Amino acid sequence: MRISITSVLFVIVSLLCITIFISIKDNMSNYNAQRREKTAHVPDLHRLESIWKLMTAIYSATGEDRFTIEEIQDTEYYPYNEHYTNLWDKGGELEVRIARETGRITATGYLRISGGKTFTKILSPVNILSKEEITRLRLHQLSLNVGERIVFVNNIRKEFIDNNELNLNEYYGHNGKGKLISYTEKVIPVPEIDDIPADNNALEIFTEWNKRIENVKELADGWGNPLRFRIVDGLVKCSSSGEDGIFGNSDDIID
Description:
The chain is of the alpha+beta class. About 45% of the residues lie in helices and about 15% in strands. Helix 2 packs antiparallel against helix 5. The protein is elongated.
């Protein structure tokens, strides 16, 4: 039985077409799998943006330079008892890396998952505050009475909570079979004093309470100099010694 050259060529071409088709199909399957994985992690990348917004909100409102997740979680501005870097079911971690440029702070968010894969997200920059601007922010918010200070902290918390809950819901929408972690909110401690400290003993309790809110050993101005607290006409007054670190001269800043 003779086999024509045409038949042989037809078989060869058919096999090549089948091989090419299988290769394209496998490549498309891999591409679609990677795309689905990346899409599934979009909410996680938004979570990175949420934690960055919390960092920049604290910086813009208080002058406190807290640009790592660990530093944020040790303050009362971070509202949850659970560690933020935990992912829902991927066994990965979140990280924010910052860079200081002329006049602004930039950041890149990293999401690393099991298997060594990393997704990144460029985060919105924030303007660098001058030491005087930081000092005036510090004086204003640390002179608030107890009730006002709690409202101040809660206002920073609220936007972050809303953003994070939105991303939790979006994550669940992409990963309906995933384990959904719920967060329990931390209760802001309240000092055992009147709303406005009545004497020096209460003022000391008040300042220690503010240290606990910000998780610092010393309440300082933009130059790193210790702030001074006094009670004047029934109000808390917070003051800075200015750049020279000496109270009683023209560069002092008083709320």
